[in-house]
Amino acid sequence: MSVKYYEDSHITIYQGNCRNMAELPDESVQCVVTSPPYWGLRKYSGEQELVWGGESECQHIWFDTSIPKSGGVGDYGVGCIGSAIVRTASHEAKPSGACSLCGAVKCQLGLEPTIEMYIEHLVEICREIRRVLRSDGVFFLNIGDSYAGSGGANENKKRGGVVENPNRKPQSAALKPKDLCLVPFRLAIALQNDGWWVRSVIIWLKTNCPPESVTDRPTESHEYILMLTKSARYYWDREAVREPQSPLTFERFPYGGSVAPTVKGKNDASHSRLDKTKHEAILPAGRNLRSVWTINTQPYSGAHFATFPEKLVEICVKAATPEVGCCSKCGAPHERVTKPSKRYAEILEKSRQGGDWYPRVSHNGYGAQRHSANRVPEYETLGWQRTCDCKDASKISSLILDPFLGSGTTTWVAKKMGRRCVGYEISREYCDLAVERCRQQVLF
Which class for 233: exposed (0-12), middle (13-18), buried (19 or more C-beta within 10 A)? Predict the structure, then answer.
């Protein structure tokens, strides 16, 4: 069981291991936004080592499973977890590593001796997340990649620009030095096989990424966010996360969605585009959310090297939870009630009548196609309605979960947005950072 470390009207922080979130009832969380430790990149401070697998009654005898500086793994097999063979480079007993009796492993998450073991541990944690997540909930999992190396001066993608444990480089039988490990893709397939719906693989593009001292490949400037659900149908508020239209949209709009070709020798006035003001009168307020999110990393003065940017959390929370809250009895989210806007209703009516609703243009013998009304949907919000049959139930704010809380960005953002949030963090040091941020924020 975890220890309740902090609580206010919107936030609850537990110090403990998120493999067991017994404090949370089944299907009580509407949205999960988190980022676990990446594989092989950092040894975190504090008592964060956990025992994975094996037998609970075993009197463990631990052997070292670290990778020698010369690279590769040793030839002494000490156990097996799933498909991952645990081998050691030394017969010397150690306070952590692998148990020679039952095959259990004692290590921090992210410092497993093989990538297969790391994936298996994350899948185990995600099963507990699936228990507490509502059937209509959404799980956003930020995960980065790393490169295989040889223990010493090895290449690595540095999350936050820091690698604190460069002499210990995990390996896998299939990985060669300098191989990209493809952790996000291995994890997505493993979670899919475990029953999750992989609804999207979002690219987090960081234009202010730190430089890398590499000369034979591009600098890594992105990470991945896996959008996962428990079922094919779930809550999603597309109106809350619409993006501004691209400037090119206004240029190509009269030409059926593509910029018309330039015709040599023609008078420009003969094929001029409608001005932007007229375009805005018939284009929607924004386009559907794209799968590439350009969000710069956000510095944090505390002792944590891998903080979420607040904007990333905001997008996830807006899309997966209603701003007005949910049912206080069953937790079902309220849904947005919309109707076509006045200008879109006029477009629909003209479309049904078969009429054109913008001037036809043609160039070089190619006639511009009339737009389908479905290309430019725009709706007005009338209000919100229940999605359950509970009677006389009030509204409460939706519950967000971050099982790897770190410095508390998710709780900080959730509280600012009027949502409730629960966070789990195994490190007391990071719990203190999260509590400090929460106390700085004005209470709602």
Answer: exposed
CA angle 8, 12, 18 (to 5 degrees): 170
Contact 235, 227 (CB under 8 A): no
Dihedral pair phi/psi, residue 333, rounded to 5°: -70, 145
User: What are the 10-residue block averages of pLDDT along the chain, 444 residues in total?
Assistant: 90 94 97 93 70 86 59 37 39 61 86 89 97 98 85 40 40 79 96 98 92 89 96 95 74 48 44 47 70 86 66 97 95 92 75 55 39 58 92 94 94 94 93 85 50
Q: Is residue 224 within 8 Å of residue 204, measured between CB atoms?
A: yes
Q: At what angle do helices 183-193 and 115-132 cross, to 10 degrees?
A: 50
Q: For residues 87 and 105, what is the distance between their CA atoms, to the nearest angstrom?
A: 11
pTM for the structure as a whole: 0.80
Residue 268 burial by CB count (10 A; 0-12/13-18/19+): exposed, middle or buried? exposed
